[in-house]
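Exam prep: given the inputs below (a chain plus PMH), describe the expected output before reading on.
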Amino acid sequence: MSQPLDLRREQSIVVDEFYRDTWIEINLEAIKYNITQMKEKLPQDSNIIAVVKANAYGHGIVPVAKKAIESGANGLAVALLEEAIKLRRAAIDVPILVLGLVPPRYAPIAAENNITLPFFQREWLDEINQYDLKKPLHLHLKFDTGMGRIGLRTEEELEDVLQGLIGNPKVQLTGVFTHFATADETDLNFFYEQNERFNRLLMVFKEKWDLPVTIHIGNSAASIRFPKSVHNCIRFGISMYGLYPSATVKEEHQINLRPAFSLHSKLVHVKKLSKGESVSYGRTYIAEADEWIGTVPIGYGDGWSRKLQGMSVLVEGNRMPIVGRICMDQLMIRMDREYKIGTKVTLIGKQGNDNIEIDEIADYLETINYEIPCMLNERIPRVYVN
Ligand code: PMH
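Solution:
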């Protein structure tokens, strides 16, 4: 019987079962480094909520969450109740906040698992009151100060919601928060406006509520740029993964970050094409001379978008272009010479003296860096290195 597991034991890596030569490497030490860098900028008593929604921005929710906690994060934030439950099932016991609205009928499940929910609607709270909760449900109150997504917007709404909260034994308010729409931009006018709106609502809140609460407004951008004015807790997302929220924040050099994510594969086939021969569907690429073509086993079925045709990959530290249409499971590259089958191909990350950054892929696809690790789906195994 063949033993694919032996290889993994030799490399001392933690993986689910896989049998393909395409993998994502997650450097957990980079996660720790980035949290440490952020912590150094924040006031001593400030807390960090590690944002691990969307499978930890594609990095793998459980290993990243565990590393974040080990590195000093005090809590976790996810988008969905199912993500929070996945963390509880992995025996993670720090506070977990769901950021998106959870339908009230699932409140008993949240309460039972000590999962904190956001809330901002009186009707939502009134519906919660109908359910039988085994423990008080922890809540964070969400203000919409200009993101225009979810949250209460006016003092009237705030007062209405507080009436439903005060003296309500079913729920326990433990936090207040908002989210910025432009904290990463060069023009910070709207950011300041949101901050002011938050402070106004917070003042009204504090007049009516004197129990201690966690107050968190800072995403990565706001926390990196204004570490001393983001109250007593931050929600640290993209920069925990070693990526800058925008070119503006990157160019300000206020923090040094290390990317945790890299993507690799291996040549599975190498051949010489003659001038005039074509590559892949639609024959969009015709060899201009006799050329070495390599086949790499990754495609749009893995989330490696067809739009990346023309982007380069690294082979022995040199850039080789992706030629012809990207298929569902494979793509072809043009190489400067013959390389052996099995030669490592790096699609994201360092190889030799070169480095293909996630930012470069994002620019090529005319999107933001956040989307790149998220788009690479579960068909590609995540391998964790410490
Ligand atoms: N808090 C909330 C409510 C968020 O939606 C996000 C990111 C973060 C914190 C973390 O932000 P950061 O990654 O910039 O640090 N949410 C999203 C989103 O909905 N689309 O892109 C990023």
